[in-house]
Structure formats: C-alpha cells, structure tokens
C-alpha cells in the first residue's frame, strides 16, 4: 500500500542553491519520514550547512521546493518554522545572556507561557550534568557547553522536527552519549531528527537513515541496519587524501 504524503517530516524537490556561478547545492530530493533520525554526511564544503539553512528558512533556494511537516516553507514560512527546533553549527547569538536566560528567551519567542517555560526548563536542566553553568554568561562557555545550551533551547518548545548542524563538535564522550540518547528519545516520542555531520561513528550509532552529500549532490542514501558500514561506504564514495 502506498504511504500517504503526511508520513513525511521533510520533503524537498529539485532543491538547488547557487552563489553566483558556484553551485552549492544541486537538485536535492529528500524524503525524511516522521520519527526517523536522518544523518546527512559529507566532507567540509560539501553543501551540508547550505542545505540545512534552506530547510530552516534562513536561505532561499535558487530553485526547488521545501515542505516541513507538509507545509511549504516558501509560502507559509512561520507555520513551517513553528515545527522546527534548530541548532546551528555556530550556536548562541547572545553571549552575554546566561544559559538559562537564553533558553527562556527562545521559549518566549515561541509563545510559551511563564508556567510552561519553567516546568519544561526544570526537566531540561536534568539532561546534561551542567547545573552550575546555567547561571553563568555564555561568553564564558566552552564550545561544548554552548552546544548543550543551544540543543536544550531547541527542545524547550517541543518541536516536531529537530534540525541540527554538526551536533557533537566540542562535546566530551559522556556528553556525546547523552546527546545521542536524547535524539533517540525525541524520535521515540514521535519526533523527527535531521542532522549534518562528518563524524561517521556517531551517525552509524544513532541514525536510522543516512545520505552522503558531495559537491552539493546527494550521491548515496540508505536506511541504516546492522550490516551497514558507513565508514566503508564513505571511503568508496569520497576520495580521502592519503
């Protein structure tokens, strides 16, 4: 039986982005199903960040279509963005706020009431063992702690879809395990995760589906199963300098 259209969390059609004569993303056709953990893998400069910025509405495509939860983001931007929790590859735009203030600001911008915010905030504070840093200015944070706060701020409004660019850069091994566990928990609670990474073991362990992007094009895509070896697949497709 053919699946209905609404089983898709993210859909793109002929999605492309040019910067002058440079083609950063070329004819990308994604179908990310609800509750998937989808890893976009590729080397630096492959087009991962450009693609993600189009998915979250920060960049307009040169051509193509984007649907988020069945909503055309180019026609109904605010409705589509309301479904997304986004973590950029350079998290935190307000360095002189504390971590707690930043999360609260994010929640208020999402329209959450004070009661909702503080109830959810108490739960989020238990995710990572970083209690003391919540009251410190983010300008003092390590890259890893900025990443954690950005992740928690993306979760606070209970989005349907998490879109994360390079999620574990700067994290210690314990925090990577926690991060992966939370992605799985999010998907088990009917959420969808789309993340870009060049760290193959993390994608291998936590993704349910993966794609390789190279020079702006999706060159491989497959569901992850116990027999999938992403490192070997990647080596066959991407030429790695010796």
Query: Which sheet architecture does the biggest sheet show?
Result: 6 strands, mixed
- Helix and strand element order: EEEEHEEHEHHHEHEHEEH
- Give me the count of strands: 11
Tally of domains? 1
Oligomer: single chain
Please give the share of residues in helix.
25-40%
Number of separate helices: 8
How much of the sequence lies in strands comes to: 25-35%
Cα separation of the termini: 47 Å
CATH fold topology: Rossmann fold
What Rg, in angstroms, do the CA atoms define? 18 Å
Low-pLDDT windows of residues: none
Chain-averaged pLDDT: 93
**What class would the helix/strand composition place it in?**
alpha/beta
- CATH hierarchy class name: Alpha Beta
Q: What best-fitting shape do the alpha-carbon axes yield? A: globular
Examine the secondary-structure arrangement and name the CATH architecture. 3-Layer(aba) Sandwich
In CATH terms, the superfamily is: P-loop containing nucleotide triphosphate hydrolases
State the gist of this model:
The chain has 242 residues and is α/β, with parallel strands linked by helices. The chain has 8 helices and 11 strands.
Detail the topology: elements first, then pairings:
Elements: E1 8-19, E2 22-28, E3 31-33, E4 37-41, H1 48-55, E5 63-68, E6 71-72, H2 77-81, E7 84-87, H3 99-109, H4 114-124, H5 143-155, E8 161-165, H6 173-188, E9 192-197, H7 200-206, E10 209-214, E11 217-223, H8 230-237
Parallel strand pairs: 4-9, 4-10, 7-8, 8-9
Antiparallel strand pairs: 1-2, 1-3, 1-5, 5-6, 10-11
